[in-house]
């Protein structure tokens, strides 16, 4: 698929300059003509470094951001509901898209549809751009004839998920900055300042107090074995990735995350909220409950919840009620079971799942904000206290420096 730069006039006479992707210049002109443009000039564009780097994102498995996909979905829904053919909408959106990787994916989706593929099957070929949940919902919309409505559900789902993710990241940014600063300051003190002071005291033959000796000993040990720190970090990273590749390892790591002091409760709320929101939007899109349970479990991001979702699916497949399956799983709070019971009895399961996921999202926001407001002053006190203790320990001999100087004379 080549990239062509063009200048054209619209049906209203307005001039425009942009890019279009096609197999050849003739095919590019045909695409522009279908969109109602009169082509004034067109030429194949050479790729610069920026374009090659952008196009490599999908090649190396790096997903396009959720915000970009959500904006595309909103535009596609508006065009589809206005009666514009999907192929024409995809070509038009690809032409306007600034993200090269995403633009290429949209062009390939459009060409696959022209070759006889369905929209969902064409999107499924681009797993780094369109998630399993996204493809399943589009497929459900195609089968039920409610694609426009489903695309609207997708936009709300992605926007809400992205909003919660942004708030959690924003709340934890400052504490992480303080921790990073503390680590950096400690390393600088231990590797630069403490050895300098130790040499001065050694040249004076000062009798060092216990705290000073301890700090100097730690500094010397850190200086001699500093290379072990990156090796240890690399070993931990490799071990973590190796564990994540096995089901038993993922289960152990994810179970530990849910049981962590302080943070475990927040992580559990985040995972449950994401799982219930995904399940709710899949149910509302018309996906069979068994398929919805399995797919929501796969996208939960936690092995414990994924296995619980699989167990619930097996309960339901044997004829048990959904709420009974959730209660038997043993990891979902009672409010979740009660809301699902209400949804089953009223026939509004998808709505109830979305409501309870909103409840947990609100709890996550409140918990994260409260934790951040508590951690920030504690971290400042701890960092200040640590640095202060180190400095005091190193300057204790100064109070006896006069005696040390007289001893050396």
Written overview of the protein:
The chain is mainly alpha-helical. It has three domains: 1-46; 50-130, no CATH class; 157-409, Type II secretion system (T2SS), domain F (Receptor-associated Protein, Up-down Bundle). Helices cover 75% and strands 6% of the residues. The chain is built from 18 helices and three strands. It has helices at 25-34, 49-59, 66-81, 86-96, 100-114, 119-124, 132-144, 147-204, 210-224, 228-244, 247-259, 263-284, 289-298, 303-317, 322-329, 334-346, 349-395, 401-408; strands at residues 2-9, 15-22, 38-44. The chain has a three-stranded antiparallel β-sheet. Helix 4 packs antiparallel against helix 5 (100-114), helix 8 (147-204) crosses helix 9 (210-224) and helix 11 (247-259) packs across helix 12. The chain is extended, with a radius of gyration of 30 Å.
Within the largest sheet, what's the order of strands? 2-1-3
CATH C-level category of the largest domain: Mainly Alpha
* DSSP strand count: 3
Q: How many domains?
A: 3
Could you tell me the mean pLDDT? 82
CATH-derived topology of the largest domain: Receptor-associated Protein
CATH superfamily of the largest domain: Type II secretion system (T2SS), domain F
Runs in which pLDDT lies below 50 for 5 or more consecutive residues are 48-62
Portion of residues in beta strands equals 5-15%
Q: How much helicity do the residues have? A: over 70%
The oligomeric status of these chains comes to single chain
- Please identify the structural class as seen in this structure: mainly alpha
């Amino acid at each position: 698929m080549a990239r062509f730069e063009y200048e054209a006039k619209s049906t209203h006479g307005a001039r425009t300059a942009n890019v279009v992707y096609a197999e050849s210049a003739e095919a590019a002109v045909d695409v522009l003509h279908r969109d109602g443009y009169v082509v004034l000039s067109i030429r194949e564009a050479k790729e610069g470094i920026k374009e090659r780097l952008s196009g490599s994102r999908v090649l190396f498995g790096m997903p396009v951001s959720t915000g970009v996909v959500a904006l595309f979905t909103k535009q596609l829904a508006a065009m589809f509901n206005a009666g514009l053919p999907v192929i024409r909408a995809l070509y038009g959106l690809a032409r306007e898209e600034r993200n090269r990787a995403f633009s290429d994916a949209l062009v390939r989706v459009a060409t696959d549809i022209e070759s006889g593929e369905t929209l969902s099957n064409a999107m499924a070929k681009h797993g780094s751009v369109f998630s399993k949940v996204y493809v399943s919902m589009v497929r459900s919309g195609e089968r039920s004839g409610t694609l426009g409505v489903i695309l609207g559900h997708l936009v709300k789902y992605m926007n809400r998920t992205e909003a919660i993710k942004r708030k959690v990241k924003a709340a934890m940014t400052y504490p992480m900055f303080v921790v990073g600063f503390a680590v950096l300051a400690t390393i600088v003190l231990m590797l630069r300042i403490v050895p300098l002071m130790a040499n001065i005291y050694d040249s004076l033959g000062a009798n060092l107090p216990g705290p000073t000796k301890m700090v100097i000993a730690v500094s010397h040990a850190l200086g001699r074995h500093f290379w072990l720190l990156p090796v240890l970090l690399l070993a931990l990273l490799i071990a973590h990735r190796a564990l994540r590749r096995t089901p038993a390892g993922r289960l152990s790591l994810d179970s530990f995350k849910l049981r962590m002091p302080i943070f475990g409760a927040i992580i559990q709320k985040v995972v449950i909220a994401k799982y219930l929101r995904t399940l709710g939007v899949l149910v509302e899109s018309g996906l069979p409950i068994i398929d919805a349970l399995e797919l929501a479990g796969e996208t939960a991001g936690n092995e414990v919840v994924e296995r619980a979702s699989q167990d619930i699916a097996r309960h339901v497949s044997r004829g048990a009620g959904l709420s009974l399956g959730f209660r038997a799983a043993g990891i979902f709070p009672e409010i979740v079971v009660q809301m699902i019971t209400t949804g089953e009895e009223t026939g509004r399961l998808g709505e109830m799942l979305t409501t309870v996921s909103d409840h947990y999202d609100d709890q996550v926001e409140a918990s994260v904000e409260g934790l951040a407001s508590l951690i920030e002053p504690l971290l400042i006190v701890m960092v200040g206290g640590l640095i202060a203790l180190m400095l005091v320990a190193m300057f204790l001999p100064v109070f006896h420096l006069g005696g040390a100087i007289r001893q050396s004379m």
